[in-house]
Amino acid sequence: MAVLVTGAAGFIGAATSRALLERGGEVVGIDSLNDYYDPRLKQARLTQLQQQFGNRFRFERLDFADADALKSFTDTIEIDGIVHLGAQAGVRYSLENPQAYVQSNLVGHCNMLELARHRRARHMVYASSSSVYGGNKSLPFRVEDRVDHPLSLYAATKKADELLSESYASLYRLPLTGLRFFTVYGPWGRPDMAMWIFVKALYAGEPLPLFNGGEMRRDFTYIDDIVSGVVACLDGPPRDDGEVKAGGSTSPHAIYNIGNSRSEDLMRVVELLEQETGRKALLDPKPMQIGDVRETFADISAIERDHGFKPATSIDEGVPRFVAWYRDYHSIR
Fold it and tell me: CA-CA distance, 56 to 260, in Å (whole number)?
């Protein structure tokens, strides 16, 4: 029986698939391969997995927001667990194309819950986001905090996913775990994220766009640490024992922050990127973007307590690894 991974061609999805395959499992990956960013990067991730793991990794191009297509395909496979990482990502893009977020993050998430329910999946882990904290001024962000005031449609859809999941866990006793990711970076990352945008600008000799004049702090979390947390959670579904879980549910539904538990100054990251690229940054200060937040900082005590999660990679270690990969991927000498 295989683990079904949605968003398998994505940054976290491909890395999670690799980790599951490396420990000897089988993975069925699905992804729509949309053009939100260059599909060639998505295909390159898939090609690596297919070449290394052969028929233990099966991929199907499929949009999980299409309920009929999802059912037709998954009727042909045996499913043990589900890691639902597929979504329409990006805070700023949600201002331009809200329909994509409703379709993928709401309709699609409901379809995945229905699949897990009818196939009686052992456990479904799904992606939420630190964006749900909105304008929360209390730091670090804790899973016990109220998250009723999202600042973007993207954040609102992720909060809605948590609410939908709570209802399914309560009604059908379906084991579910939601993970609020904090600024994930590393090799094979996303081109719409700050780390990639900055490195690309440095090598091109172009200005770095610095929102809020660069006065931002983020809980940057290295991809290997994120994946270790995803897999640990998949292996430990919440119990249906009536006890209060992380996030407050008494149903078999837990919600965790998954981050590095450090809030890094954005300009410190720029300095590290300058060191690794050997280029001096040209700075382009910009106003704060609508829907954005000034600082993120994860309290990871719940996932550490329940799953032994401990991030191992500091920003000083992670940045050189990303820059080295970027140079190799783009054949920069």
Answer: 31
